[in-house]
Amino acid sequence: MELQKLEFLKHLVRFNRHVYLDHNATTPMSPYVRRKMTRVMERHYGNPSSLYGIARKSAELLERARRQVADAIHAAPDEIYFTSCATESNNAVLQSVSAHFTPGRNKIISTPIEHPSVLNTLAHLEAQGVIVEYCPVDDKGRLLLDELEQRIDADTFMVCCILANNETGVIQDIRAVAEIARQHGALVLTDCVQALGKIPIDAHEWGVDYATFSAHKLYGPKGVGALYVKHGSPFAPLLHGGHQESGQRAGTEGLHNIVGFGAACQEVNALLADAGETRALRRLLIRRLQSIKPDCIINSPEEAACLPNTLSVTFPGVENAELMAMLDYYGVAVSAGSACSTGEDAPSHVLKAMGISDQAARQTIRFSLGRDTSAADIRYAAKVIRDFIAGRMPFVHMMTPAQLNETILFDERTFILDVRPPDDRKRYKGLPNSHEVAPLHVENYLKQIPRDKRILVYCPGGGLSVMVSYYLKAKGFTRVINLRGGLDGWRERRGDLYQKYAGQNVRVLQPDETAGVR
Ligand code: PLP
User: What is the largest CA-CA distance in the chain?
Assistant: First the structure.
């Protein structure tokens, strides 16, 4: 009885522990920001563009927030435009400058380690005839400035360089980049999304033309970004409509979000003052990981060239999807650097650009600490990793594509669970006898998943399914098997079986509460 009680307590502790080490994905909202935003939502509903009293108050709050953002990055308030997110800010600059201001010049130079909001916009521009060149980085992700000097020419109208990388934390020498660009008459865009609140930013001193920001990376709300456009630098709006934001970005302002962004910027100095402590915790994490797995590889650069909170580590021989899913099972949130939750499961383009192999990229985890991270959090995360690596964890079984044969596919004791996203289901037929569920809401189907069978879970690449597998373990399903490499791997490896059986007898499950209702 006592033992049972102890087990139950352990279970409670395990599932109540939450360690968030994914602050580069997003941050929890600051209580101060929340208070400011709530006040606006409760009281200040006036449209800042209208003329009467409550609207004038809204306009005043809007301008105050603009000043707060400007102060945080050392810019003038009339150089700041609010947008819906940093993705919009990056799009606005790249698209506007390419379309309107490039007579006689047709080339953008960027880096291979930009955020997808830049890379995919560049791909779009390339399809429209803009020449895009990517300047290589070294094995720590630092831009090779002499390569930039060699590539930049009279045809180059813009250099676009991320200030601090979201996956490794590497910080670029943006002053030097801006200086090289200036000498060739090119404009400079820098994505500062990950940097604000972590390292000092001085837009004026750096001499960049454009810089982009997002509130949710510094304890502010999601759905609001900012764009810095230096006085005199060319810019035309991406969104056309009303005259908001001095005619540079149409659409009624989301005042609560903008005020939240301003409030978050008021806390920037306090965040910067915390950087030393964060750096110390990052060192503790490195020490622990190196003692657990001495052959682990730190991909982030040395401290002086790295964000204080970010650490990218490769664990040779350990699949990141499995480690991440197991950490999730124990309440620890980290990121793998590959978009497996969307089913892509492609190795990180950032790590690849640094010369890291696909295999090593798939063994890499990103830890990103925040202002609430404690030494106890780091010790807990490290302990979970130690137990996993030592093989002391409850285990989700893995099946390789080669092992998945007809006997398993048609065995009545196997229940096949398809957790692929809808677009993948449109592209490829699933395993025979699959049960399709909404991949991000597996909790709605638990009553329909039999507890007396072995559950074979699959997704396109094996990343999302491993998370679901651990979730099912946590929900008491004893025999859970993940298809490593996913349907993509099986199609490749067992094309013969795929041709013969894919799509046979597939069932779409309805969520539990609606199951049986027609
Ligand atoms: N740039 C970087 C470096 C980022 O990390 C992100 C978000 O992850 C973005 C841009 C996009 O920001 P938003 O979510 O505001 O569109």
Answer: 82
Pick the CATH number of 31-270 from 3.40.50.1820, 3.40.640.10, 3.40.50.1000, 3.90.550.10: 3.40.640.10
SS3 309: coil
pLDDT at 1 over 60: no
What is the C-alpha separation between 339 and 41, in angstroms, rounded? 34
Whether 85 lines ligand 1, by a CB cut-off of 6 Å, is: yes
Q: What angle do CA 309, 311, 313 make, to 5 degrees?
A: 170
Residues with a catalytic annotation lie at 340
Q: CA–CA separation, 202 vs 207, rounded Å?
A: 9
CA of 192 to the centre of ligand 1 (A): 9
Which residues does 47 contact at the CB level (< 8 Å), separation at least 6? 55, 58, 252
Verify whether ligand 1 is closer than 6 Å to residue 193 (CB atom): yes
Task: Tell me the mean pLDDT in the region 168-180.
Answer: 98
Q: pTM of the predicted model, to two decimals?
A: 0.85
- Quick one: which of 227, 167, 236 has its CA closest to 203? 227
Structure tokens at 392: 């002391």
**355 alpha carbon to ligand 1 midpoint, in Å?**
23
- Decide whether any atom of ligand 1 lies within 6 Å of the 225 Cβ: yes
Measuring CA to CA, which residue among 215, 375, 197, 362 is closest to residue 288?
375
Give the architecture-level CATH label for domain 397-508: 3-Layer(aba) Sandwich (3.40)
Q: Does residue 195 line the site of ligand 1, with CB under 6 A? A: no
**CATH 3.40.250.10 in the chain, residues?**
397-508
Residue scoring higher pLDDT (463 or 483): 483
β pairing state of 310-314 and 297-298:
antiparallel
For the domain covering 16-26+275-389, report its CATH number. 3.90.1150.10
The span from the CA of 102 to the CA of 405, in Å, is 58
Number of helices (H) and strands (E), helices first, in the chain?
A: 20, 18
